[in-house]
Specification:
Layout lengths: L1 H12 L7 E4 L1 E7 L4 E11 L2 E10 L9 E2 L5 E13 L1 H6 L4 H39 L2 H4 L7 H51 L6 E12 L3 E12 L2 E12 L4 E12 L5 E4 L1 E4 L55 H5 L12 E3 L4 E3 L6 E11 L1 E6 L8 E6 L10 E7 L2 E8 L8 E7 L3 E9 L11 E14 L5 E8 L9 E6 L4 E2 L5 E8 L4 E13 L10
Parallel strand pairs: 1-4, 2-12, 9-18, 16-23
Antiparallel strand pairs: 2-3, 3-8, 4-7, 5-8, 6-7, 9-10, 10-15, 11-14, 12-13, 16-17, 17-20, 18-19, 21-22, 22-27, 23-26, 24-27, 25-26
Length: about 550
Amino acid sequence: MRKTCSIVAFLLLGVCTFAQTEVKGKIEKVTVYPSSALVEKSITTSLQKGENKFIITGNALTVGTNDIHFSASSDWFISSMYSSQENLSSKETLAREMPQVAYNQYLALKTQFDDVSLRLSNANILLSILNQQASALYNMKALRNTAAFDTLVNLKEQFAFQRKESQAINTTRIKTSQEIEDLTAKQRQLTKEIDALVRKYTGGKTISATQNDIYVSVYASKNIPSAKLCFSYMTGQVYSGYSYDVMLDENKHQAVFSLKSTVSQSTGEHWNGCPIVFSTTETGYAGYDPALNPYYLNYVAQYAPRAAAAKTARNSAVMEPEGIALDEVVVMNNYAAMRDMSTVGVQTLTREYALQTSQTIPSGEMPQTILLHNDTTKAFFARYATPKLQEKVHFTALLPEWESLGLLDASCNVYLNNRYVSVSNVVTSGTGDTMRFAVGQDPNVLVNRKMVKSSPDKGGMLSKEVTETATITLTLKNTKNEAVVVNIKDQVPISNASDLKVLDVTTDGGQLEDKTGIVRWKVTLQPQEQKKLTLSYTVKYPKEREHSVILR
């Protein structure tokens, strides 16, 4: 019987473990890079002189002890640290998202629940042992084979022993059964309180996850009632892409570039209501200052003079801003000069956008789009058409101060006068003083091109040459209720042979560039007005070349 009591006493004592304080790091800031993030956290706790053990919960899954960096202090230092992943229940996962005060309440209730569960388990084990003892007493010889006792005295003593032990066991069984009933009721009550607390702060979601706990030993040189331990780590499994919404206003002559980030993360850690900073440059590796190579300055592509603006455009509804020519700059095909070009300029731009309000970016959920920044700049607008290649009028925004915006190369949705019009791209490389930003087709201004070629005139039997005339008719129509200006261009051929001549070019007021053959017009169209432009030229060539000349 003493042996049985010793077993019961051991079960009631339970298993002793070393005390470790469970804490959750508070996210101070998250810096999001294109494919990673820097998470900065802090813990405010009391430190006793000597060694203090903590379990820091809720960290990114991919973070190891070598990735975590604590701030230095003269009063304490990290003596040891290791990480351990564990699968958590839905309730525990949600609880770790709650504020620290609420999470502390959860931990207190969970400690009570674990204590009750341990006591309930021990009580059930004790009841099982008591049932086994009762069965053993019932099967003793005195009850089953009285003839085995040699004297009546011995038989009476055995019956007395069995009666006494049975009474003691039954008394303990009744007490233990009542304890089991009380502990079960207490367990149900604690479960209700825990569920109510978690539901209050998390809305009753049901999720489960794997969490990365960091076990840290902090050695303090003195008692510190309130110590702030700051640490940070880099984590991957983060994606951040950038795009713009570009709002163009033709009346106000302005453009608003709204930078957005589409971000998602699957680190296993929920970023709940914390400051977020978006950085446009990915983190890299340390390196040395790069060496400079000689910079050889040479001639590059020649530029043809810009066509003079037509005086009639001065009275048009769309005026040309001072210092900006709406005519395109034509680059000559000076291939020899281009081959001599030996340097390439690369513009590196780094920007960080700290959001004014805290954000929540859960792990493993669909990407979300966050507005980062708005930039407003001057914008002038022009319409261009090259009907020989496309019978469309392209609407273009001219941005003379684009360099001050710090724009990224990114896709964008374009809105004109508060209406969506197209998808475009911001391209900063190779852009000069004025950025030409493609807005899209203007469906309210129509353009058509028609070419008519005359029959070859062979000039009689004695003539050795053939002449052929091409007439191009360009038709423009403005269906808008306001005047517009269209910059339109076409071309006449340029001869590369001495016996192939281009003669009698008529441009209907267009500006002809002799070196390129390009003809340019700036046409003002009043509301609902239609205009026609005529371009013609004659080509003369030898009769034997009749079928080798193609006009288009």
